[in-house]
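CORE FACILITY INTAKE
Project code: CF-77B
Contact: R.S. (postdoc)
Sample description: multi-component assembly, two entities in total
Requested service: structural model of the whole complex
Turnaround: standard
Below are the sequence entries exactly as provided by the requester. Do not edit them.
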Amino acid sequence: MAIVRWDPFRDVYTLQRGVNRMFDDIASRISGVSGTRYPKLDVTETRDALKVKAELPGLSKDDVRITVTQNVLSISGERKAPALPEGACPLREERSFGRFERSVELPVPIETEQTKAAFANGVLTVTLHKREEAKPKEIQVEVK
Amino acid sequence: MANRKQPEGERYVTPMVDIYETKDDVVVLVDLPGVSKDGLGLTITEDELTITAAVSRGIAEEEEVLYGEMAYADYFRAFTLSDAIDRQKVSASLENGVLTLTLPKVERVKPRQVPVTFES
């Protein structure tokens, strides 16, 4: 990761986000309207690439559409409710279905052409390669 | 089937489930993203069905997490089974992170057609 200027308010922002999340959570429980982000995402970074993982149980590669620009990744698709056998009586329905779309702003510019995606056990992993200028460089400095 | 509380002290994620009933079975669908067959543990005791599932998030050492929403904890959920379920015949399949449990009903609780003859 590139050198980032120390921001004394960063921890405050983190706290603010945490408190906001707590209030969102309480609000959704009271109103019954769920504000859950779907799908859940993780973003990780290595020297050369960014990885975005999304929890999409029950979906396969034909169910999702991935678009990528230089700094935004979008994942959209539809999770279809399974067709119940005839005469089946639902007893409990906690899982949610329907259309979804999520976009992530990427922290560094990427080579859009080299983007790869894979599905494993209901988790989608999108690998985005950083552009050359965004990779950390090691420069030998000669000391005289 | 009723929910049972998870063991105290440890942190678990409660997976979302759908349950439906047909003439012959009770079917349980469980969302377990990130779980492979090796990580899945199903146990049936006298009156309880327990699902535990280990999650391998596959984060390499050189990877740095920039943003995280997924919970880094194993899944746990338990259900109480009624006498109507035939414990010996429970079957399970895991596909794309969704577990399907088929719990067949015992013969005596299945709906039967009783022939009725009318005396004329």
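Facility notes:
- The mean pLDDT of chain B is 86.
- The longest strand of chain B covers residues 25-31.
Invoice: internal transfer
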